[in-house]
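Key idea: predict the complex, not the pieces.
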Amino acid sequence: MKITFPHMGNTYIVAKSLLDDFEVDYVIPPFNSKKALEIGTKYAPEMSCLPLKINLGNYIEAFEEGADTVLITGGCGPCRFGYYCEMSREILNDNGFNMDILTLELPNGNLKEFMKRIRKLTGGFNIPKVIKVVKDTLHVSKKVDSLEKLTFKARPREVKKGSVDRVYKDFQKDILNVKGSKQILKSIENTKNKIMRLEIDKDYEPLKVGIVGEIYTTIDFFTNLNIDSKLGGMGVEVDRAITVSGWITEHILKAIIPYRKDISYKEASKPYLGAMIGGHAQETIGNSVLYANMGYDGIIQIYPLTCMPEIVAESILPSVERDHDIPVLTLILDEMTGEAGYITRIEAFIDLLKKRKERREIGEELILSGN
Amino acid sequence: MKKKIGIPKCLLYYQYYPLWKVFFEELGAEVILSDNTTKKIMDDGVKLCVDEACLPIKLFYGHVLNIKDKVDYLFIPRLTSVSKNEYICPKFGGLPDMIKHTVKDLPKIIDTEINLRKSKKKAFTTALEIGQFFVSDKTKIKKAFKEAITSYGEYRKKVKQGVIPTDILDKKLSVVKKNDENMLNIAVIGHSYNLYDKYTNMNMIEKLKNNGINVITVDMVDGKIIDEKVKQLNKQMFWYFGRKAIGSAYHFMETGEIDGIIYLMAFGCGVDSFICDFIERKIRKNSEIPFIVLNIDEHTGEAGMDTRLEAFTDMIRWRYRDENNLSAHG
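Result:
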């Protein structure tokens, strides 16, 4: 059994740590690319959402490198992600890619089935080992996220443009060569120190933009065309409430272990969206409100075309925009997205935010030029 | 004066109207429906709604605009789930919020959550909650609920016998042209609000019927058969419609009485995008039944739709006529 898994931003680092520690044989698919997307688009249903298309591309590229089992998580709706496993199984088998799909989920609270799948994955069931590995993996995921947060802060303040990205991109590539959670943690620590040593402008006060939206497109840097570093390069500090570690703890671990969930965004979204409707719609609304309260200058919502929960969120966001006086830009991605148009929109949005902030600082009323 | 409650004539209207109507009327309210879908309703909806939403949701906006000034209450329940362990669609769950935050000058909205995911018994408590808007007497609500369930049961029974829901809802039988060709049985899979809204699907069902075709829709398949058929799925289907569609598709494949299957999908529908592909794969792999996907959106041209329907039915007829006497020389 040779396992593979789909890419989603930095998730591969976390998955690598998990599989290394369990000593499972695996293949990390080549990084998301135009090629992966093209392969996926060819096989996936035309109107399915973008993540499925890229995932399929990942599986097929990994298949060519010898993988025969796909490890993904599932869920029971109402978002389409819950049926990714079955769709992928059908599509792969119909097209002659003989791959098995291993879904880590609790099918209707069926713990036995879950244990069976874990056993299949780890080959045996050594409880202390499983607990230790899960704990270490969680630690890695948190460290990866805090490193990412550090780049969010460092990028707009860097003196030499692109210096943070250079260190960070090297880290993302080099991590493929180390093995096990211990070494991964060490590598993260090294990178952190390297970034800390970079020359930064401490007095610079950047614009702050919160990124909300569907998890895959907000986290995956290929899909969102490196929005973090693009905004960072424009001197904007970004923040993203949805993270890999948050997703692992909230959606996988806490579904199994009854533990208090983080509900601050739920409270915040209550006046706008009264119930959980699947996907990340509630997070999108709630986090937008929270960002507004924290004094952010703007919000960017990102989601893949036809994403059901985010369409609901998009319809409601204008109310948040009005009530909390914070500009919102919605960016929708699919396989046709052109980079130039995308950047133009982001730049225009940031320019508006800058002017808005300046005007507020000076306290001048808006006067339109006669020319 | 009777309180007026407005029900937009789209989405789950086609499934639950007999239930809702009797329930509200028993409580002494006057039920007011929006008009049949027209170009104006569609255009209004398209203008108001976010671009990315699917056609039925856009239509819903249009219907709300059409009716909102005529009523005291608007019935837009938060439809999270209507069956155990299943959902409908995220957009249905967020519908009252979407409407509230987009449409201005709305009457009072009844947005009680209907969520039968955990247990069917919740239906009654939900009815109690909705009933409170009109009367406070619980026994009266209970009686109304009972009547409503009976009315719904009768409706379902008729539909299962093969009556097209709109014939019951509009209280008239559609006139079918006489056709001398052999009767064909064609199954149509799709959301009820796409199948029965004559404007959006450009009268598809009637066109088929006038062409000498006996139309069978997913709503006519018995629930028990569907439950039985979906057992062959690897993973439980968590969409109410998805389960119904996949179960019926298996049923259509196995009965041997179906001559062709049409899948009517709305552009941008997330559920359809997966279910349609899934069903197509199964049908193409396991059977010889002709299958066609028709996609509708707000721009659909009627001529294109007609051509495809005609081509599909002709193809089936020719298949029966010519299949066995093709020239061996090509």
